[in-house]
Amino acid sequence: MSEIIILFLGAISAGLLGSLTGLGGGVIIIPLLTLGYGVPMHYAIGASLISVIGTSSGAAVAFVKEGFTNMRIGMFLEIATTAGAIVGALVSGMLNPNTIGIIFASILLLTVILNLKGKPDHQEPLIQGSLEEKLKLYGTFPDKGGIIKKYSARNTIPGFFMMMFAGAMSGLLGIGSGALKVLAMDNMMKLPFKVSTTTSNFMIGVTAVAGALIYFQRGEIIPVIVAPVLIGVVVGSFIGSKTLMVSKTKKLKTFFAIVITILSVYMMYNGINQSFR
Question: Residue 96: left (phi > 0), alpha (psi -120 to 50), or beta?
Fold first, then answer.
């Protein structure tokens, strides 16, 4: 019981840090379980995927109600992310835990870089006769003063393949891969930043479900680990969302980016030294 309580408190911290940095609890849960509690890598990934499902669901509902999420674009791109997540989860079962640890550290460093970069705010007009028009990958979103802005996607095919890679990383590493999804929608498909971030959040839970099913089938989702992690991350994310409203966001993100960079280097070190099991 004491170990479960400690794990619960650790998961609250992971959810809090993940919420404040915008990177999600998964990037903290994996190091916490593997390095802090000695949980085997694949069991840690299974628990992390379940926590990702829980944390993304509540926020996704709110964003849909506010009118930012483009459900049509999200459901179209989920074809890519779910396919990628299944492949990533299957590949994960074939890889050595230390190899996964090294890949995790590399993706975590990339995620930190993408999170710190300036975010362009696109607003592309619809091109008549384009693939985007045929697939209806366009929409509107509310802006300040009640103004409704129109936008359309671009570069759908490259964005689709980038989404497959993001899904594969989610299934392989047990993370939401939100930064990679935003990279695909924001930089490649030229969607407005608010639309890409909220639509990414809408997709994260579905992507995680696809990967989690593979881990469940292999018996790598253990309730005694998953339950305190899920509840703790949800509680931590809620506290983080409230803290974020009264905090200086830029300074927080910079500080935690440094912390997560150190954490990723430590993960890389342990992977190279064959410390994971």
Answer: beta
At residue 104, φ and ψ (nearest 5 deg) are: -60, -45
Helix 249-272 / helix 97-116 crossing angle, nearest 10 deg: 160
Map residue 217 onto helix, strand or coil: helix
Q: What is the pLDDT of residues 225-276, one digit of tens each?
A: 999 888 888 888 777 666 655 555 566 667 777 877 888 888 899 999 988 8
- Quickly tell me which residue has 């608010």 as its tokens: 194
State how far the alpha carbon of 208 is from the alpha carbons of 57, 72, 110, 178, in Å.
Answer: 11, 19, 20, 11
3-state secondary structure of 142: strand
Enclosing H/E stretch for 138: strand 138-142
Burial of 213 (0-12, 13-18, 19+ CB in 10 A): middle
Express the helix, strand and coil content of the chain in percent, nearest 5 each: 75, 5, 20
Question: Helix 71-92 vs helix 193-217: angle between axes, to the nearest 10 degrees?
Answer: 40
Domain definitions of the chain by residue range:
1-273
